[in-house]
Structure formats: C-alpha cells, structure tokens
Amino acid sequence: MSVWLDLNSKVIVQGMTGSEGHKHTQRMVDAGTRVVAGVTPGKGGQSIRFEEDPVPVFNTVAEAVAATGANTSVIFVPAPHTKAAALEAIDAGLDLVVVITEGVAVADTAEFVAHARRTGHTRVIGPNCPGLISPGKSNVGIIPPNIAGHGPIGLISKSGTLTYQMMFELRDLGFSSAVGIGGDPVNGTSHIDVLAAFEADPETRAIVLIGEIGGDAEERAAAYIAEHVTKPVVAYVAGFTAPVGKTMGHAGAIVTGSAGTAAAKKAAFEAVGVRVGHTPSETANLVRQVVAELG
C-alpha cells in the first residue's frame, strides 16, 4: 500500500506540451509512472514520444479520461490558467489532482479547493508543491525519483527543497511515500490529511513532518497527533532564524508577533511527544533513533 499513488495510478499531464511539462513528464516516465495522456487545448490529436510508445495529447481532460481511464492529473500550466485547469480536472471526476504551479492567486486556489471538497471525489495536492512519490511505484510532480528508494518512512512537507533534502538524508531507510503539500496560505491537502493517510498505511512505520513558520497548521497537526496518531512522528520546523514580520519564500510563511514562530511550533510538537530537530540532519538522526527503537 502507498498513499494516494501506486502502480495502478494512470496519470495525465495538463500542460505536457510546454517546456516544464515536457521535461518533468520525461522524468516521471523514467521513474515508472504510467503517464497515459497529455492535455493542451488546441493541440488535441498530437502525440509526444517519451519511450517506445507515443503519449497522446487531448484538448480536454474529459476526452483524456474517456480515452485512457486516467484517475490522476498533474498540472503544469501558468498561474493565470491554473484555476481553470484544476476545475476542469475536478469536473472530469479524477481521484487525484496535483497542482505544481506556483504564484497562483489565493482566491483562485480557494475556489478550486472548495469545489473539490463540494464534489467529494477529488483530492487536490498543492498548489506550489513538488507533488508526491511512492518510490518504486509512481512519481507525480517534480520530486527527483532517484534520491531514495522504498522503505518504512512517511514524509509530509510544506517545502519542496526540504522534501528532497530529507529524502536524501534518509536514503538509507527509504520511504513508503513522500507528499509535498505546498506552502501557500490555502492548499488542497493539509498535514492532518497526510497524517491520517500514513496512520492507516501498514507500510509506514514512522512519520516525518516538515513545517515552517507562519499560520497554525503545525499546531493543529500537533493536536491531531495527540488524539489520532499512534505511530512515532519526528518534526522539523523551518524558520528558527527568520526575522519577524517578513514573508520568507512561501506566501504562507509570515510571522506576526509571537504567533506562528518556529519556537511556538516546536513547543506544540514536543508537548504531544513529537521529537523536533533543529536541522534536517539532526531530524534525520532522530528518525533513525525512532526506527531503531521500533525494532
């Protein structure tokens, strides 16, 4: 079992004919992902060869789903068009929609995330995220597939680069799945959603949660862990040295007064028994200790 992505996932790429979409589709195909179609309005009927078989391009998501039975989409379209692409994917009935695009207007994200929740059949991950990977099974997004193999660790992260670093740090153990949820103020999938999935996944024995300054998502995750998670969790919070009142990289990473600070998040985690590392390397060592204790 893996989280939301496995060998049976059939993936379409919205924006596959663009430079970024094409580049990362090649990487996904190389990683074994079953990419069955691309979608670019006005380019239906074309095809792009990534391995031996050409991948067809359709004008709409609905056409691609009807022709291929796809259940997953990854979106590589410019920010002004992301809302329309996400709404189209949701309306086509896909199970999973992964929005890689950064710079999406918060109002646009709120609209398509709310639409997905109303329909009740589509999980949205992102926007402004690296996607997710189940090593050895499937990779949807921009996570380099050769960082780490399959193993017992489940990873949740707001940050793309810290996702990659933590996977590299723990390549000796490996991952059941790694999910980058994105760092925007509004996103489709929360820490809590992924915690629940890892708690239910028999292949995941320990969980790493990467958060960052700003908002209260980590505090809410800590409260959820206390009530619902039986597996050991290790956390890292980015931003211990960030200046107060500055937006740091992600649009959601802004601290006001004492709210949303790394110290406050660390305290919330430690209060419920979650070990917190001050650096990615220290966090990885804590994970190794946890796994060793599990036997």
Q: Provide mean pLDDT, rounded.
A: 92
CATH architecture of the largest domain: 3-Layer(aba) Sandwich
How many strand segments? Answer: 14
CATH topology of the largest domain: Rossmann fold
Termini gap: 21 Å
Rg over CA atoms: 19 Å
Q: Indicate the structural class.
A: alpha/beta
In the CATH scheme, the class of the largest domain would be: Alpha Beta
Shape assignment: globular
Estimate percent helicity.
25-40%
> What's the order of the H and E elements?
EHEEEHEHEHEEEEHEHEHEHEH
Notable traits:
single chain, 295 residues, alpha/beta, Rossmann fold, 2 domains, seven-stranded mixed β-sheet, 35% helix, globular
How is this structure best described in words?
There is one protein chain. It contains 9 helices and 14 strands. By secondary structure, the protein is an alpha/beta fold. It folds into 2 domains: 116 residues, NAD(P)-binding Rossmann-like Domain (Rossmann fold, 3-Layer(aba) Sandwich), CATH 3.40.50.720; 148 residues, Rossmann fold. It is globular. The model has no long low-confidence stretch (mean pLDDT 92).
Write a brief structural summary.
This protein is of the alpha/beta class. Helix content is 35%, strand content 23%.
